[in-house]
Design brief:
- The structure is a single chain.
- The protein is of the alpha+beta class and about 180 residues long.
- It has a single domain, classed as Alpha-Beta Complex (Peptide Deformylase).
- About 30% of the residues lie in helices and about 30% in strands.
- Strands 1-2-3-6-7 form a 5-stranded antiparallel beta sheet. A two-stranded antiparallel sheet has the order 4-5.
Length: about 180
Protein backbone atom coordinates (compact mmCIF):
# COMPACT_ATOMS: atom_id res chain seq x y z
CA UNK A 1 0.00 0.00 0.00
CA UNK A 2 1.03 3.56 -0.65
CA UNK A 3 1.29 6.40 1.80
CA UNK A 4 1.66 8.97 -0.98
CA UNK A 5 -0.38 12.09 -0.11
CA UNK A 6 -3.17 13.29 -2.36
CA UNK A 7 -2.69 16.92 -3.35
CA UNK A 8 -5.43 19.19 -2.03
CA UNK A 9 -7.00 22.53 -2.90
CA UNK A 10 -4.33 25.22 -3.05
CA UNK A 11 -1.64 23.00 -4.58
CA UNK A 12 -0.64 24.57 -7.93
CA UNK A 13 -0.26 21.18 -9.67
CA UNK A 14 -4.05 20.84 -9.51
CA UNK A 15 -4.50 23.89 -11.74
CA UNK A 16 -2.11 22.74 -14.48
CA UNK A 17 -3.23 21.02 -17.69
CA UNK A 18 -1.71 17.53 -17.68
CA UNK A 19 0.67 16.57 -20.47
CA UNK A 20 -0.10 13.84 -22.99
CA UNK A 21 1.70 10.54 -22.58
CA UNK A 22 3.71 9.70 -25.69
CA UNK A 23 4.76 6.16 -24.75
CA UNK A 24 2.98 3.66 -22.53
CA UNK A 25 6.03 2.03 -21.00
CA UNK A 26 6.93 0.34 -17.71
CA UNK A 27 7.03 3.69 -15.90
CA UNK A 28 3.44 4.42 -16.91
CA UNK A 29 2.34 0.93 -15.86
CA UNK A 30 4.04 1.45 -12.48
CA UNK A 31 2.41 4.87 -12.16
CA UNK A 32 -1.02 3.34 -12.86
CA UNK A 33 -0.46 0.65 -10.21
CA UNK A 34 0.57 3.29 -7.67
CA UNK A 35 -2.46 5.40 -8.54
CA UNK A 36 -4.80 2.45 -8.04
CA UNK A 37 -3.27 1.80 -4.60
CA UNK A 38 -3.64 5.48 -3.63
CA UNK A 39 -7.23 5.58 -4.92
CA UNK A 40 -8.25 2.54 -2.86
CA UNK A 41 -6.37 3.75 0.22
CA UNK A 42 -8.09 7.17 0.11
CA UNK A 43 -10.77 5.64 -0.51
CA UNK A 44 -12.12 6.99 -3.77
CA UNK A 45 -13.66 5.86 -7.05
CA UNK A 46 -11.27 7.77 -9.30
CA UNK A 47 -7.87 9.45 -9.27
CA UNK A 48 -6.03 11.60 -11.81
CA UNK A 49 -2.22 11.62 -11.92
CA UNK A 50 -1.94 15.29 -10.98
CA UNK A 51 -3.75 14.52 -7.71
CA UNK A 52 -0.52 12.82 -6.66
CA UNK A 53 1.65 15.54 -8.19
CA UNK A 54 2.38 13.90 -11.57
CA UNK A 55 1.52 16.03 -14.58
CA UNK A 56 0.51 13.22 -16.97
CA UNK A 57 -2.80 12.58 -18.79
CA UNK A 58 -3.83 9.39 -17.06
CA UNK A 59 -6.57 8.50 -14.61
CA UNK A 60 -7.74 5.37 -12.84
CA UNK A 61 -11.19 4.50 -11.62
CA UNK A 62 -13.27 1.72 -10.16
CA UNK A 63 -17.06 1.98 -10.28
CA UNK A 64 -17.31 -1.37 -8.53
CA UNK A 65 -16.18 -3.75 -11.30
CA UNK A 66 -12.42 -3.55 -10.65
CA UNK A 67 -9.82 -0.93 -11.53
CA UNK A 68 -9.56 0.58 -15.01
CA UNK A 69 -6.75 2.79 -16.35
CA UNK A 70 -7.31 5.37 -19.10
CA UNK A 71 -4.34 7.05 -20.79
CA UNK A 72 -4.76 10.27 -22.80
CA UNK A 73 -8.55 10.38 -22.36
CA UNK A 74 -10.77 12.62 -24.48
CA UNK A 75 -14.50 13.18 -24.20
CA UNK A 76 -15.76 13.06 -27.78
CA UNK A 77 -19.46 13.70 -27.16
CA UNK A 78 -21.79 14.59 -24.33
CA UNK A 79 -25.51 15.09 -23.99
CA UNK A 80 -28.28 15.59 -21.49
CA UNK A 81 -28.01 16.91 -17.98
CA UNK A 82 -27.75 15.22 -14.60
CA UNK A 83 -27.36 16.76 -11.14
CA UNK A 84 -25.71 14.61 -8.49
CA UNK A 85 -23.88 15.18 -5.22
CA UNK A 86 -20.17 15.12 -5.97
CA UNK A 87 -17.12 15.15 -3.73
CA UNK A 88 -13.39 15.12 -4.44
CA UNK A 89 -10.32 13.61 -2.79
CA UNK A 90 -8.55 16.94 -3.39
CA UNK A 91 -11.30 18.82 -1.57
CA UNK A 92 -11.73 16.40 1.36
CA UNK A 93 -14.89 16.30 3.40
CA UNK A 94 -16.93 18.59 1.16
CA UNK A 95 -19.50 17.83 -1.53
CA UNK A 96 -22.02 19.72 -3.62
CA UNK A 97 -24.79 19.05 -6.11
CA UNK A 98 -23.09 19.47 -9.47
CA UNK A 99 -24.85 19.48 -12.84
CA UNK A 100 -22.96 17.84 -15.68
CA UNK A 101 -23.87 16.20 -18.98
CA UNK A 102 -25.54 12.85 -18.35
CA UNK A 103 -24.28 10.79 -21.30
CA UNK A 104 -20.73 10.91 -22.65
CA UNK A 105 -18.46 9.13 -25.10
CA UNK A 106 -14.90 8.80 -23.80
CA UNK A 107 -11.94 7.53 -25.81
CA UNK A 108 -8.39 6.90 -24.68
CA UNK A 109 -5.92 4.05 -24.36
CA UNK A 110 -5.42 1.18 -21.98
CA UNK A 111 -2.04 0.13 -20.60
CA UNK A 112 -1.74 -2.35 -23.48
CA UNK A 113 -1.84 0.55 -25.96
CA UNK A 114 -5.22 -0.52 -27.32
CA UNK A 115 -7.86 2.15 -27.85
CA UNK A 116 -10.66 2.36 -25.29
CA UNK A 117 -14.05 3.68 -26.40
CA UNK A 118 -16.78 3.89 -23.76
CA UNK A 119 -20.27 5.33 -24.12
CA UNK A 120 -21.80 5.70 -20.69
CA UNK A 121 -24.02 7.82 -18.51
CA UNK A 122 -24.83 8.78 -14.96
CA UNK A 123 -22.29 7.60 -12.36
CA UNK A 124 -19.55 6.27 -14.66
CA UNK A 125 -19.93 9.29 -16.96
CA UNK A 126 -19.63 11.58 -13.94
CA UNK A 127 -16.42 9.84 -12.84
CA UNK A 128 -14.94 10.38 -16.32
CA UNK A 129 -15.92 14.05 -16.40
CA UNK A 130 -14.59 14.65 -12.89
CA UNK A 131 -11.21 13.05 -13.67
CA UNK A 132 -11.04 14.87 -17.02
CA UNK A 133 -11.56 18.13 -15.13
CA UNK A 134 -8.52 17.27 -13.00
CA UNK A 135 -6.43 16.55 -16.09
CA UNK A 136 -7.53 19.93 -17.48
CA UNK A 137 -6.57 21.78 -14.27
CA UNK A 138 -10.15 22.29 -13.06
CA UNK A 139 -11.14 21.55 -9.47
CA UNK A 140 -14.67 20.72 -8.37
CA UNK A 141 -14.91 24.10 -6.64
CA UNK A 142 -14.80 25.76 -10.07
CA UNK A 143 -18.08 24.01 -10.99
CA UNK A 144 -19.99 25.82 -8.22
CA UNK A 145 -22.14 28.91 -8.62
CA UNK A 146 -20.56 32.20 -7.50
CA UNK A 147 -21.98 32.18 -3.95
CA UNK A 148 -21.09 28.53 -3.35
CA UNK A 149 -17.60 29.07 -4.78
CA UNK A 150 -16.97 32.06 -2.52
CA UNK A 151 -18.12 30.15 0.60
CA UNK A 152 -16.15 27.02 -0.37
CA UNK A 153 -12.92 28.93 -1.01
CA UNK A 154 -13.28 30.80 2.29
CA UNK A 155 -13.70 27.48 4.15
CA UNK A 156 -10.80 25.87 2.28
CA UNK A 157 -8.46 28.83 2.99
CA UNK A 158 -9.40 28.63 6.68
CA UNK A 159 -8.63 24.89 6.69
CA UNK A 160 -5.27 25.51 5.00
CA UNK A 161 -4.32 28.09 7.64
CA UNK A 162 -5.32 25.70 10.45
CA UNK A 163 -3.28 22.85 8.94
CA UNK A 164 -0.31 25.13 8.40
CA UNK A 165 -0.45 26.37 12.00
CA UNK A 166 -0.70 22.81 13.37
CA UNK A 167 2.15 21.52 11.18
CA UNK A 168 4.36 24.51 10.20
CA UNK A 169 7.20 22.47 8.67
CA UNK A 170 4.90 19.92 6.97
CA UNK A 171 6.70 16.97 8.55
CA UNK A 172 3.66 15.64 10.41
CA UNK A 173 1.70 15.49 7.14
CA UNK A 174 4.54 13.68 5.41
CA UNK A 175 5.70 11.36 8.16
CA UNK A 176 2.75 11.15 10.55
CA UNK A 177 2.48 12.83 13.91
Amino acid sequence: MSSLPIRVFGDPVLTEVAKEISDIDGKIVSLAELMIDVMYEAPGVGLAANQIGINKRIFVYDKGDGPVVVVNPVIKESSGEWTYEEGCLSVPGLSWDITRPNAIHLVGFGLDGEEISIETDEFEGRIFQHEMDHLNGILLVERLDDDQKKAAKKLLRKRAIEVSAADPDGLNRLFGS
